[in-house]
Amino acid sequence: MGPGEILGLVGDNGAGKSTLLKIISGALDPTSGSVKLNGEHLEFGNPAQQRQAGIEAVYQDLGLVGNLDVAGNFFLGRELRLRDHRSPLAFLDKRAMRLQARDAIARLHITIPGSVAQKVNSLSGGQRQAVAIARAAFWKRELLLLDEPTAALGVEATAEVGHLILKIAKEENVPIIVVSHDIAEVLKVADRIVVLRQGEVTAELTGSETSAAEVVGYITGTIAPETTEGG
Q1: The whole model's pTM is what?
Q2: Lower Cβ count inside 10 Å, N or C end of the chain?
Q3: Residue-range domains of the chain with CATH
């Protein structure tokens, strides 16, 4: 993938889309193959290494803690701390975390009621999804993985998430892989679309040159899989 490229990964239930994302993120071991980032092989089964390498993932459960505020969720597991050489204790630097979270959300033009001190469980589904994606974009450097980012959202929130994905990719220059069943939304944002069927790639299409009917045809098998030259 190139900088700022959006790749839509589509397929029927059980095609292997989410499994592939988990392999790339280090959460699962593959039976074969390898993952390279900037020419370097990444270890499997090691999400921490993938995060350090700059790969961030947002799964369907979002990974947010409802009783923490937006800033607390931004820095979940990566909390900033104030240290005093006179004490063995360290305290959370809530001010710094809130400032950084506020700046990140403002840069992406995300609307959160109140402030980043707002508890996540008081936000709408679309706002929670935006927070999860913004958090991943804040920590990413190389690749962002999104698993069904609009699955539980209404029409308006789905459109907002689509705009957010485009903004992160094109303005922040971050490559993004989007897994989705919503073919229409994938066509709106994806530069390239890869179709999986029963664990295998059956087609690789240019987003601006294909149609929903063609994509669905490859997903269902009514269109024969693409073949490489010589077979």
Answers
A1: 0.84
A2: C
A3: 6-65+123-220 (3.40.50.300)
Query: How far, in Å, CA of 120 to CA of 112, rounded?
Result: 10
| CA–CA separation, 128 and 213 (whole Å) | 32
Mean pLDDT, residues 72-78: 90
Phi-psi region of 195 (alpha: psi -120 to 50; beta: other; left: phi over 0): beta
Report CA dihedral (92, 111, 60, 96) to the nearest 10 degrees: -10
Cα of first residue to Cα of last residue in the chain, in angstroms, is 25
* pLDDT, mean of residues 78-83: 84
Burial 122-156 (b: 16+ CB within 10 A, else e): ebeebbbbbbbbbbbbbebeebbbbbbbbeebeee
Residue 119 in tokens: 């508890």
Could you report the per-residue pLDDT of 136-175, keeping only the tens digit for each?
A: 888 877 899 999 888 877 888 888 889 889 998 998 899 9
